[in-house]
Amino acid sequence: MPSLEATCGRERAGGELSAPRLRGDTPEKAGLDPAELRHLVREVHDLTAGEHPWAAGAVVIAGRGPVIAVAEAAGWAVRYASYDPATDRGVELPPDQRVPMTVDTPFDLASLTKLFTAVAAVQQIERGTLGIDARVGAYLPEFRAAAAHGVTVRQLLTHTSGLRPELPLYDCPDDASRSALLRAEAPVGVPGTYTYSDLNPLLLQRVLERVTGRPLDVLVRDGITRPLGMASTRFGPCPDAAATEDQRRPWAKADRGMLRGEVHDENAWALGGVAGHAGLFSTGPDLAVFCRALLAGGSYGPARILGPDLVDLLLAPPGLGFAVDQPWFMGELAGHGAVGHTGFTGTSLVLDPATDTFLVLLATTVHPCRRPPASGPRATAATRLARAVRGARRT
Questions:
Q1: What is the rounded distance in angstroms from the CA atom of residue 7 to the CA atom of residue 20?
Q2: Which domains does the chain have, with CATH numbers?
Q3: How far is CA 333 from CA 313, 328, 377, 388, in A?
Q4: In this structure, what DSSP letter does residue 225 have?
Q5: Which residues are CB-neighbours of 226 under 8 A, at least 6 positions away?
Q6: Cβ(108)–Cβ(269) under 8 Å?
Q7: Which of 103, 79, 102 minimizes the C-alpha distance to 91?
Q8: Coil, strand or helix: which one is 280?
């Protein structure tokens, strides 16, 4: 199975037992019902079929414990040359110019980037360089509006700062004006009330860069992806990635044409591709490692990115960066502390500590053009995994 560590058992690192690495094996070895997983694979293939598919292509990785039971690719990484608004259809490439999807195809993660920003923040909390209930103004006094309203690090991590969902940074003429707009932005909602906002991880990024003296891409690389061996996870550009959107006004916020390997999110693009809320590219196998490390209390093989107590802090309700028990995309996995996130480009992951299971579903739902969000297929896939756990218990 490509890109999956085949090491099993428990390994020794520095004289201490380390967490087992992922290996590909049968559903039965994972403690999962094979019939339900066959349904899962078939349904993912169906999502990419026909003239108007849910996604042009998809990758699904599912497992339990250290076992990958499903690693499947469907459809196309690149199917369309452009989008025709007159017919509301994609202009398909000739068959010999299309790029098939593989399990190792990188995807623009979109908002799954927020999870890595959150882990980077909790790493600094663990090290004592960042206070979870400290005020943002203590680190960024020049962000006068956030400072005046007493916005805290915890509020940024839980989307309870009161900041609006986004700002049009993509319309600013230069970096100075973008920074000025962020510094002047005051909460519009009641602090402590949940409002999902890209501005929260953007401010958190600046806090992290201030307290560490290092940019976010370096923090993510040195603190998360390199220790875990996630060699295919990085901020863009990523030329081999699955294509996203023929990005043009009026349906988008910028005129950039068909995107492949450049960040889709317009604000992340305006900020140079490295942003707290979007910009990372990764593969299904790499994200499976990320999920496994968190399910194993912060360790994977010989690496430790967080201590178990800090993982508990990260994943316990209401979740720091992670959404908790959301049936709209977690299906029947929700209800007992499952956590995860979705991304606008069609990405998602769910990990369920109660059953030690994880699901990564990466799809090109915005290729060739964005559409109203439809997370039913994500929920259906998660429900299949939940039923695979229950089905295995009955046998």
A1: 7
A2: 16-106+217-311+322-377+389-394 (3.40.710.10), 119-216 (1.20.58.710)
A3: 20, 11, 14, 11
A4: I
A5: none
A6: no
A7: 79
A8: strand
Asked whether 366 and 58 are in contact (CB, 8 A), the reply is no
d(CA 34, CA 20): 23
CA distance 110 to 118: 14
Which among 151, 60, 42, 58 is positioned nearest to 100, based on CA atoms? 58
- Which contiguous run of DSSP H or E holds residue 210? helix 199-212
Give the span between the Cα atoms of 77 and 12, in whole angstroms: 39
**pTM for the complete prediction?**
0.95
Place of tokens 């979870």: 132
- 280, 1 contact by CB (below 8 A): no
How many residues are there in the chain? 395
* pLDDT tens digits, one per residue of 214-273: 999 999 999 999 999 999 999 999 999 999 999 999 999 999 999 999 999 999 999 999
User: Could you report the per-residue pLDDT of 280-303, keeping only the tens digit for each?
Assistant: 999 999 999 999 999 999 999 999
Three-class secondary structure of residue 371 per DSSP? coil
pLDDT tens-digit map of 163-197:
999 999 999 999 999 999 999 999 999 889 999 99
CA distance 205 to 209: 6
